[in-house]
Amino acid sequence: MKVFIRKISTLFLRPFLNLIPKKIGFVILTFHNIPHDKMSWFEHTISFIAQNFELADPNDLFSYKSGKQCLRTKVLITFDDGFYSNRIVAEKVLEKYNTKAIFFVTEKFIGLDPEEAFIFASNQFYPGSIINNSANHDYKAMSLNDLRWLISNGHTVGAHTATHKAVSLIESKDEVLDEIIYSADRLVDKIERKINTFAFPYGVPELINDYSLKVASTRFKYIFSNVRGNLCDSPGLKFIFRQNISPGDPVWLIKLIIEGRLDWKHKGVRKLSFEFLSRYETTSGCNIKSR
After folding, report:
1. Which of 1, 147, 189, 283 has the fewest CB atoms within 10 Å, measured from its CB?
2. What is the C-alpha separation between 18 and 22, in angstroms, rounded?
3. Are 77 and 99 in contact (CB under 8 A)?
4. How many CB atoms sit inside 10 A of residue 168's CB?
């Protein structure tokens, strides 16, 4: 319902939103599960992005330098959680457009059988919501072989905690370490590939505390949030802004999101992000540091 209201309210504001100056820069999009009945929507979305912007590669992020002038907006695709649908769209859609993505996976979700995966998704990814395990809503998890396929085809696997808990609600420091550090180390042992990227579950400052940020900062070079904005807007590499996309979002809305024309709606949480990160990164101007 909230997504529907957002789309309707934005539709009425659309003529005015187009008057807001667009931003040109490096934009990172967040996708989650892509249900079976939204596969064609996803391909249409990727096609639209490829035609109107420039699809980026994770290596474009890893080699990004602050102050770099962009002539055209680059868009990097990321996925959170580890749904099997991500492997499907990587093979059937991303390969077609010769683009690579970052897949942030929840360690203990990977490899679950379909029934276990549905229960895990219901409890951990969608707490407080009722999800329907029907043919049109597939909540299967990727396997380790799926992760290996992604890596062998040039994609990047990142960490997304052990069980997708809101880390600010965890009282035990040992449990925070297990969720953030040890889960990533276990994943490294299984896929035999280094992991230096991490995305916080939910990705907003109020669900991340000082201790969890400090822990993540000691282990990962790139830490991702889900606060709206482009790369250069971000407080730093330890809290990179991303633009969340929901299945079914129309392309005109996605275009407004990529161009930064909805960023003003998130002014408060963006300000909070800078305050939150001020103890880790300088907060003047574009804070993405050169390699």
Report:
1. 1
2. 8
3. yes
4. 18
Residue 82 has pLDDT above 90, yes or no: yes
Domain range summary for the chain, segments of one domain joined by +: 77-166+187-202
What is the b/e burial string over 117-139, where b = at least 16 CB atoms within 10 angstroms of the residue's CB? bbebbeebbeeeeeeebeeeebb
User: Where are any strands of DSSP class E within 106-144?
Assistant: none
Helix or strand or coil: residue 180? helix
**Which CATH code for domain 77-166+187-202?**
3.20.20.370
Sequence-separated (6 or more) residues with CB below 8 Å from residue 267: none
Q: Residue ranges of the alpha helices (H) in 26-112?
A: 39-52, 58-62, 84-89
CA distance 232 to 24: 10
pTM beyond cutoff 0.85: yes
Question: What angle (nearest 5°) sits at the alpha carbon of residue 64, between those of residues 220 and 191?
Answer: 40
Tokens 């609600």 found at: 169
Residues 258, 244 contacting (CB under 8 angstroms): no
User: Identity (one letter) of the amino acid at 25?
Assistant: G
Tens digit of pLDDT for each residue in 156-196?
Answer: 999 999 999 999 999 999 999 999 999 999 999 999 999 99
Task: Give the three-class secondary structure for 104.
Answer: strand
Q: Residue 138: pLDDT band by 50, 70, 90 thresholds?
A: confident
Q: What average pLDDT does this structure show over 223-231? A: 94
Q: What phi and psi values does residue 136 have, to the nearest 5 degrees? A: -90, -5
Please give the angle made by the CA atoms of 191, 196 and 201, to the nearest 5 degrees: 90
Residue closest to 52 by CA, chosen among 13, 24, 93: 24
* Cβ proximity of 247 and 42 under 8 Å: yes
% the chain with pLDDT above 70: 87
